[in-house]
Each structure stands twice: as C-alpha cells, then as structure tokens.
Design brief:
This protein is of the alpha/beta class and 282 residues long. It has helices at residues 37-50, 65-68, 82-89, 93-103, 108-113, 181-193, 212-231, 240-247, 257-281, and strands spanning 2-5, 8-11, 19-24, 27-31, 57-59, 77-81, 124-126, 129-132, 139-143, 152-156, 161-163, 198-200. Helix content is 39%, strand content 18%.
C-alpha cells in the first residue's frame, strides 16, 4: 500500500489493476476491489490497519470483473453508475463459470472459489455526478464513460487526485471490447482539463494528466484507420491487414507478439462495429 496524500492510499500490486482508499472522518471509502479472493482478504486487513471505523462505502469505477469481484469480501454499501447496476444484475452462474475458467490458469484456488462467490451489485447508483461530504476529504464521483458506458472517475479535489479506473492504462495496450471510443476520447479530454496533479490509472504507475495523450493518440489512429477501411467498402474480415501497422507501435518481446496481435485485432473489430452504427445513422 502506498500513501499518496494525508488520507489517500493506493495499492498497485494486486492482479487485475490498481485500487484505492480515501479515509474520511466517518470511515474509509474504497475505490474498486481486488479481483482475486486472497488479494481481497489482504486488502480488507490493510484497511483495518488504517482505521477502526467500518468501511463507509465501496465505489466501483465500472462493471468489469477486475473492479467488482472483490465486493463480496467487504461489508459495505456499493456505489456505482446505474449502468454498472444493470450489468452486474445480469451476472449469474454463467458469469461465475466464465470467471472460473479465466482464473484457473492464474490461480487455481481463486477459480475454485468462483462457484460460491456472491456477486454483489451496487445498492446506490447515480447518472452524472455524486458527492460524498463525510467530513474531510470531500470525494466526488463523475461519470465519463469511455472504457465502458458506465466508467466513472473518483475525484479528491482537496488533494488534486483523480482515480480514473480503466479509462487510463499505462504499460499495457488498452482493450476496446466494451468501449465507446468517441466517448473515451471525450473523457480523456475532460481529464486533461481538470484540476489534477496526481492521476491514479487503472493499470500502471501514478502519473499526471499528460499521460493520457498517448492513449488519445492510439484511439484516434485506430478510429481513423478503421474509418478509411470501412469507407473503402472493405469487410471486417479484411481488418487483419491493419494489425501489423499497429503492432509496430507497441514493440514487445517476440513471445508476446501473438497476444498483442490478437488484442489489436479485437480492438479493430470493435471500432469497425462502431463505424457500422455511425454510418448507418447518416
């Protein structure tokens, strides 16, 4: 755990992404939860060492598994965007089995726990903005969309700290499977305009808002490439010809190239589907 302000903490070592905690006068506010059960239990113990007050609430920055799976290990009210509530409400046995299959190569014990895991959905939701004024520090929730339609940011204005969830990922290629890429570009522009000194990304080290520029550029490039491909009348199956051009922008060891190419193709497919919808409306 790393303390980044008087009452603000982050943990960047857990599998699944960065999470955080803001210790207010009335109790800690958690920002996302660890994906693996053992990490969730460890985080719970860490929070108990910060304060004797019970967890005031738990905020999920979106509905992806790396943000919500650990909810079950905390006795706290879960707060999120209303679209997160809609998504998580549909997570049942099929979702648990999918998570078990995903985690088995990573952590056999975690995979075994999935069949019994309670998927906790939000009890409080909002649409655009929400404020927690529980003494100090003040915490604001801001709906941005982008990585998912439900993605939010958690702002601690007194400390100029912004938790942005998976709208910002460093040291990894973003996955656009659930994204609205136009909205994502708008979200990144909004982040750059905010009064922020420390940005807590969903993955990677702490940074400032300038770190959003390469991600914006990647999304713009991929949108432009796919738009021209689509307007030329080429099919989704022909997108493979664009993969190598994007792979060159992310030089990684040879053993990781196959996974990188697969993710790029997935991203291209997603943006192609967005273009189909966009041009159907015109």
């Amino acid at each position: 755990m790393q303390q980044i302000a008087e009452r603000v903490y982050v943990e960047m070592a857990y599998y699944g992404g960065n999470i955080g905690c803001v210790v207010t006068d009335q109790g800690p506010i958690l920002i996302d939860t660890p994906m693996l059960p053992r990490d969730a239990r460890h985080w719970r113990d860490q929070i108990a060492q910060l304060t004797s007050l019970p967890v005031l609430c738990l905020i999920n920055t979106d509905y992806c598994e790396n943000r919500i799976l650990g909810n079950a290990f905390f006795e706290a009210t879960v707060v999120a965007h209303e679209l997160t509530w809609e998504a998580v409400s549909g997570y049942g046995d099929a979702f648990r089995q999918q998570m078990a299959n995903l985690l088995e190569p990573i952590d056999v014990e975690a995979a075994a726990e999935m069949s019994e895991l309670k998927v906790v959905r939000p009890q409080i939701t909002f649409t655009e903005r929400m404020v927690f004024e529980k003494g100090t520090p003040l915490v604001r929730l801001i709906h941005l969309g982008g990585h998912t339609p439900a993605t939010i940011a958690v702002y601690v204005p007194d400390e100029k700290i912004l938790f942005v969830g998976d709208n910002v990922m460093l040291d990894t290629l973003p996955l656009l499977t659930r994204a609205d890429t136009k909205q994502w570009l708008q979200a990144l522009t909004t982040i750059r305009k905010m009064r922020v000194e420390t940005l807590v990304p969903g993955h990677g080290p702490l940074c400032d808002t300038s770190a959003t520029q390469p991600l914006s550029e990647y999304i713009r490039v991929i949108r432009d490439m796919v738009r021209r491909h689509f307007q030329a009348g080429r099919s989704k199956s022909e997108l493979s010809s664009l993969v190598s051009r994007l792979t060159d922008a992310y030089p990684i060891p040879e053993e990781g190239q196959e996974g990188l190419r697969s993710r790029i193709k997935t991203n291209l497919d997603r943006v192609y589907d967005e273009m189909k919808v966009l041009y159907r409306k015109k």
